[in-house]
TrEMBL record:
This is S1 motif domain-containing protein. SMART domains: S1. One of its GO terms (biological process) is rRNA processing. InterPro entries: NA-bd_OB-fold, Rrp5, S1_domain. GO terms for cellular component: small-subunit processome. Residues 62-131 form the S1 motif domain. It comes from Octopus bimaculoides (California two-spotted octopus). PANTHER family: PROGRAMMED CELL DEATH PROTEIN 11 PRE-RRNA PROCESSING PROTEIN RRP5, PROTEIN RRP5 HOMOLOG. It comes from the Eukaryota. One of its GO terms (molecular function) is RNA binding.
Length: 292
């Protein structure tokens, strides 16, 4: 869990590193006679900025701290911090929905941003909140954290390219690219298809709104993301989306900085959100960094 801030990358990175490799780490805690280190960028940046709290005496109400999900229970989430400090975020300090299934959204080892909302000096305990409106973090920190997702991903891709069972990685596929796919199967959840090269693809039902398809039919689509674990390309084939992206490809136009634009959410992941930025009848896919 300490190899990356992004849980879906941890297992894959575990297979990449070997004896003798150099890694940047920070001392997370001492356990018996062993030292537990972490390579999570969020913790390394926190240590660099001097906000690496390892003692209860340095905890105070109002602090924003980076922690790691230790355990998920029905009534809340236990979060571990450097030095082995442990805190509980009860359900009401996570969401307004008392019936939410916390196990669906939080996993052991997940990096979270927290806000200290209460301290009990006698019991030497403290409570934290995971509500986004309370856990604001520095925008530069967030951007660096987000960029590291792609850095991790590129390391994994380079490793997978050395294996004979991942030929699709050599196709140079990118989010926002246009392609043509052939339908192989239509199911309730969406459409299974193949790209011209034979690479497997999938179009979720909500990503083909306005398009009727059947087996062996060829349709235009836009690449949303590449699932490294399954080797499947996720696509959108809605005629409106494809048409707007195609217009932008034919007549490229710079997206102005600091300008408010309408956008359509296409894909939501724990690590990122992909949106369709709309501008004068044309559109371009972009990544949106979610809060930690």
């Amino acid at each position: 869990m300490h190899l990356s801030d992004f849980q879906n990358h941890c297992d894959m990175l575990w297979d990449i590193y070997s004896e003798g490799d150099m890694m940047r780490v920070v001392n997370f805690k001492n356990l018996n006679k062993a030292t537990i280190c972490s390579s999570k960028l969020s913790l390394r940046l926190t240590a660099k900025k001097g906000n690496f709290v390892q003692s209860f005496n340095n905890i105070h109400v109002g602090q924003n701290l980076i922690g790691i999900v230790k355990t998920v229970v029905d009534y809340g989430v236990f979060v571990e911090f450097p030095g082995g400090l442990l805190s509980l975020a009860v359900t009401k300090d996570i969401t307004a929905d008392p019936d939410i299934n916390l196990h669906k959204y939080f996993k052991e080892g997940m990096t979270v941003s927290t806000h200290v909302c209460g301290i009990n000096q006698k019991k030497r305990q403290f409570r934290v909140s995971l509500k986004l409106r309370k856990t604001d973090i520095d925008s530069d920190f967030q951007l660096t954290y987000f960029r590291n997702y792609f850095k991790d991903k590129n390391i994994i891709i380079d490793h997978l390219k050395s294996r004979k069972d991942c030929p699709w990685l050599f196709e140079d596929l990118h989010t926002g690219d246009l392609c043509h796919v052939t339908v192989t199967e239509v199911v309730k959840e969406g459409v299974h298809c193949t790209l011209e090269s034979g690479t497997k693809g999938f179009i979720a039902t909500h990503h083909r709104k306005g398009l009727t398809v059947k087996k062996d039919m060829t349709v235009a689509a836009v690449i949303l993301d590449m699932d490294l674990l399954q080797g499947i390309v996720q696509l959108a084939a809605s005629p409106v989306v494809v048409k707007q992206v195609m217009k932008m490809k034919k007549k490229p136009e710079e997206i102005p900085k600091n300008k408010k634009l309408k956008s359509l959410v296409l894909l939501v992941r724990k690590e990122f959100v992909i949106v369709l930025l709309k501008m004068k009848g044309k559109a371009k896919l972009a990544y949106l960094s979610p809060k930690m």
